[in-house]
Design brief:
Blueprint lengths: L3 H17 L8 H6 L6 H10 L5 H5 L12 H16 L7 H4 L1 H24 L1 H4 L8 H5 L2 H31 L2 H4 L2 H13 L20 H29 L11 H26 L10 H23 L6 H18 L6 H23 L1
Helix pairs in contact: 1-5, 3-5, 3-17, 5-10, 7-15, 7-16, 10-17, 12-17, 13-14, 14-15, 15-16
Bound molecules: iron/sulfur cluster (SF4) (2 copies).
């Protein structure tokens, strides 16, 4: 359960905002808030995950600090959002990873890289790892097929299970009836909102990020990360189909679907994560919670390293550096996979769920008019 202090502050800001309503055009939070007269804990958790910290309401607010009300909507909702992540963690014993996320992500990733590199050198031997390999099965000559496929397939299954349990917990705690999540029209609308990152456009002028000036830069960088990640995932899926079903093992030619999609996705991910890190370094820290800084930075750095190591592997795959780069890249990807359910990545799942609930409520409202 979120602490009373965090819930009380979220309730206080929503009650004041519900009386004021000046910011209702900025995002989905305010119309959703206006559908309520009072706020149960469940409502507050839902609203917290509908907020994406665009900060428009902070800079527009006449009650924000230094006003005596000290109203800071983005920070209050970010504090609560963080606690909803922790409550949905499965298995619960890993909830501490949310609290100490930055150091946890860094240590797990370093350990993953060291483990994969060490195992590769032990199993394949230094002469194999540090020499040039060309043609079909070049990667498997460095890291055998079974050692590459079995751990990552097992991790992928684990991730799906953990995400489904987390989503179920979040929906139960923050949203309500399970049937609402299967509302086809609500999912269609939520998906459309998510694919456009609609609410990062604020009231049309963008976010007040990294400072009080309106800008679309955060939205475009999020697009780079989001679609870059999807393209990399598609590239890996196509490569797996080529390998397992068409018996065409990697590496693939430069003009092949896995390489083209992986390269475009990798560059987009690199630009998006680097840009968001740059903005984070320059952002006004007042409308954010300092408790989530490690989590945000850890995830962005991991995405940046994943794309950088993947692109370097592509560029240097016909040199003696390939073996080391392959092991390092897989170690980073393993760190990313292992920490995904216990870090920033879950915001994508919970925000989507909050968007579904929001779409469900607004469709119901439209129907009742
Ligand atoms: S953030 Fe401030 S200006 Fe905006 S609705 Fe709330 S009280 Fe009103
Ligand atoms: S920070 Fe942005 S998304 Fe969050 S409540 Fe304020 S206006 Fe809405």
């Amino acid at each position: 359960m979120p602490s009373d202090k965090v819930l009380k502050e979220a309730d206080r800001v929503m009650v004041i905002c519900n009386a004021c309503r000046y910011c209702e055009g900025f995002c989905a939070v305010f119309p959703a808030m206006e559908r309520r007269r009072t706020f149960e804990d469940q409502d507050l958790k839902y609203l917290a995950n509908l907020c994406h910290n665009c900060r428009d309401c902070y800079y527009a607010c006449q009650y924000a600090p230094p006003h005596e009300y000290q109203l800071n909507v983005p920070r209050a909702l970010a504090e609560l959002r963080l606690e909803t992540y922790r409550d949905a963690v499965w298995p619960g014993v890993f909830a501490g990873l949310i609290k100490h996320n930055g150091p946890a992500v860094a240590s797990i990733t370093v350990l993953s890289i060291a483990a994969v590199l060490l195992l590769t050198i032990v199993f394949s031997g230094p002469p194999t790892v540090f020499s040039t390999h060309l043609g079909e099965n070049a990667f498997y000559r460095v890291i055998p097929y079974a050692l590459m496929v079995i751990p990552f397939s097992s991790l992928a299954i684990y991730l799906i299970v953990v995400f489904l349990i987390g989503l179920n917990r979040f929906w139960r705690d923050a949203a309500g009836k399970p049937a609402d999540f299967t509302d086809f029209r609500a999912n269609g609308r939520a998906l459309w909102d998510a694919l456009r990152l609609k609410y990062l456009a604020g009231g049309g002028y963008g976010c007040n990020y990294p400072d009080e000036r309106f800008s679309h830069i955060r939205r475009w960088l999020h697009h780079c990360v989001f679609y870059g990640f999807l393209l990399c995932l598609t590239s890996t899926t196509i490569a797996a189909i080529y390998d397992h079903f068409l018996h065409r093992p990697a590496p693939y030619p430069v003009l092949s679907w896995p390489v083209v999609l992986g390269t475009i996705g990798g560059v987009a991910l690199l630009v998006g994560s680097a840009g968001l890190l740059y903005l984070k370094a320059r952002m006004d820290s007042q409308p954010a919670t300092p408790r989530s800084l490690g989590m945000d930075i850890g995830f962005l750095v991991l995405l940046f390293l994943t794309s950088l190591s993947g692109l370097l592997l592509l560029i240097l795959r016909e040199t003696p550096a390939m073996g080391t780069l392959l092991a390092v890249h897989l170690g980073i990807v393993m760190g990313l996979f292992v920490t995904m359910p216990y870090g920033k990545f879950i915001h994508a799942i919970f925000r989507y769920a909050a968007l579904v609930k929001n779409a469900h409520e607004s469709l119901r409202e439209d129907n009742s008019r």
